[in-house]
Amino acid sequence: MRFAVRRTIFYLITAWAAVTINFLIPRLMPGDPVTALMGRMQGRIDSNAEESIRVLFGLDTSSSIWQQYVDYWGLLLRGDLGLSFTFFPTPVAEIVQQALPWTIGLVGIATIIAFVLGTSIGVAIGWRRGTWADALLPITTFFSAVPYFWLGLIAITVFSVTLGWFPSSGSYDRGMVPAWSWEFVGSVIYYGFLPALTVVLSSIAGWILGMRNMVVTVSSEDYVTVAHAKGLPERTVMVGYAARNAILPQVSNFALSLGFVVGGTLIMEMVFSYQGIGYTLFQAVNTQDYPLMQGCFLVITLAVLGANIIADFVYAALDPRARQEG
Amino acid sequence: MAQDTSLVESETVVEPAVEHRTRDPRRPKRFLFLRNGKALTGIGILLFFGVLAVVGPWIAPYDPNQVSVDLLQPPSWTHWLGTDHTGRDILSQIVVGTRGVLVVGLIAGVSATVLGVVVGVTAGFVGGAGDETLSALSNVFLVIPQLPLIIIIAGQLPTAGGVTVALVIGATGWAWGARVMRAQTLSLRKRDFVEAARANGERTWRLVLAEVLPNLTAIIAAGFVGTVTFAVMSQVTLAFIGITPVSDWNWGTILFWAQNNLALQRGAWWWFVPAGLCIALLGMALTLVNFGIDEFVNPRLRSTGMNARVLRRRRIRPRIGFTPVLRTPPGAGPRAAAAGPTRKERS
């Protein structure tokens, strides 16, 4: 219980910090790009929407910074993230809402596959330390050193331009109407396969290496030796004794590296023009659409936070010590 | 620290430890890090890129911005890595761009490491409320996804040049180092030698600088290398999505031009493959150095330096749970001992 309370407080603080950073960044920047944009949009924005953009970006110099902060929270709590300049006059919240499920689907599935697969491979390699299995290590090192987006470029070249097996961009066949039909879902899987494959390929190396090193370390612990001495089957010792303990840091690493993985996959969306939040952020950056940029960052951060909470509770379920010590 | 279950798995002569090579016990230890093949390879590659970064602009065959009539040429003798859509030489772009990549990596790495050490060591050493606050701060920065944060900061800066980007990366990427540093400082703080220095009436700053920091060297180095890797990746990514000025050459800029001019669809592999390989090579070199540091610090990982063939030749049967330990027969000389796999150094 203590554990849950502590973590909840921590996540509340983090969420608050993320919102505050989002509030401060436009106000700390030199120059005033938003005013220039507002000038260009003169007359096309209705006064209500203009007001919310003013509050979001601190153009309202007449009120104190504290008053601005309170107003800002007020807007956020009502779900008002301002209007997008690029997709004028669509509200940012609406754009983000459309993009988010795609990202969660792609990143979520790919990350879980990479984690499960990488951890299992890591156990296998760590268990057979000093045999041919170690030859896999340099390969994984290479893949962990390659930037995500470059791997995406190569995948597009090989699989869609040269071989023509998969489409190089988009998230479903544009000729179809989104619906819960087999046909449409099939199209989504078909279009999502290549991005997911690249995400898995480039993030799996980290999981393999982490798990391998943990298995190597754990397998010289006394309880593993004892399990061997008792004559338990090799498999039981590997899975039930070594891997079971080695996976704990892996899970806590999962929470910590999630931000990194998400950052990388956002870039992947940009490469594949996959209509998720990363691609939206990319468009926003290129067109200097500040409200959309801010909105994307906020939503990404909150999503990562949510995933962290889940990872935390999984960890607590796996490791009784975490529950007790808090 | 948990003790290894050392067992002699080898059939070579069993002999009580390392007594015979105590002629100069300090020398071999000092070069232990460099004896590690991985670290050596990594440092070699880093040196290569370092030299390239210094002399790059002078040895580049062409001016990277010079437009010519050889549009989108595949590699040839005149253009070793071909040309882009306006006839600019790609090899020159890569050679000149090396400096940008390394400078940003270095500045970001140094600034993030300094921040991390200051925050982490302070938190670990001070303890109490200060520790709580600083740890909460670094945990918050750990959870907030860094790349999107860097993107929105750099995207709103009017001019996001190399140094600015490096500082932004440094300002957002220190948290991991701080966390590791804090944990280690906590365990060092109560050690006898620190207590002894404290009892001698040393001032706090001297305790930190002379007693704690030297013992953190390996971790600081590992953190630094990790941060440089992250900084290089972030910077290249930022250049690739076009946030940093496209006139500053670095490897990401090349990829930016390639992506925006449909290099993929035109099959111009020479445009984006070499730049990506350079990034991968640099990243790999940094990772290898980090492996070297890891194995230097954690002897259990060290036997991984041997592959299966070497193990068989030395008649060591790898078995889980036991660290293979090799003891050299007397008179075999320090060379054989040096080639030995996981001799146990002091732990």
From TrEMBL, chain A:
InterPro entries given in the database record: MetI-like (IPR000515), MetI-like_sf (IPR035906)
Family to which the UniProt record says this protein belongs: Belongs to the binding-protein-dependent transport system permease family.
Residues covered by the ABC transmembrane type-1 domain: 100-311
Gene3D superfamilies to which the protein is assigned, alphabetical: MetI-like
Keywords assigned by UniProt, alphabetized: Membrane, Transmembrane, Transmembrane helix, Transport
Major location category of this protein: membrane
Gene Ontology CC annotation, any one: plasma membrane
Membrane spanning stretches: 9-29, 99-127, 148-168, 188-209, 254-277, 297-318
One Gene Ontology biological process: transmembrane transport
PROSITE patterns: ABC_TM1
The name this protein goes by in its record: ABC transporter permease
Transcription recorded as keyword: no
Subcellular localization(s) per the UniProt record: Cell membrane; Membrane
Record carries keyword Transmembrane: yes
Organism (species): Isoptericola sediminis
Membrane topology reported for the UniProt record: Multi-pass membrane protein
From TrEMBL, chain B:
Presence of the UniProt keyword Magnesium in the record: no
One family name in Pfam for this protein: OppC_N
Highest taxon of the lineage: Bacteria
Annotated localization: Cell membrane
TM regions (residue ranges): 39-60, 101-127, 134-154, 160-181, 216-243, 269-293
Skewed-composition ranges (Low complexity): 328-341
Keywords for the protein's UniProt record, in alphabetical order: Cell membrane, Membrane, Transmembrane, Transmembrane helix, Transport
Annotated ranges, domain ABC transmembrane type-1: 102-290
InterPro entries documented for this protein: BP-dependent_transpt_permease, MetI-like, MetI-like_sf, OppC_N
Membrane topology listed for this record: Multi-pass membrane protein
One GO location term (cellular component): plasma membrane
MF term (GO), any: dipeptide transmembrane transporter activity
Region Disordered, residue ranges: 1-22, 327-347
Family of the protein in this entry: Belongs to the binding-protein-dependent transport system permease family.
Protein name: ABC transporter permease
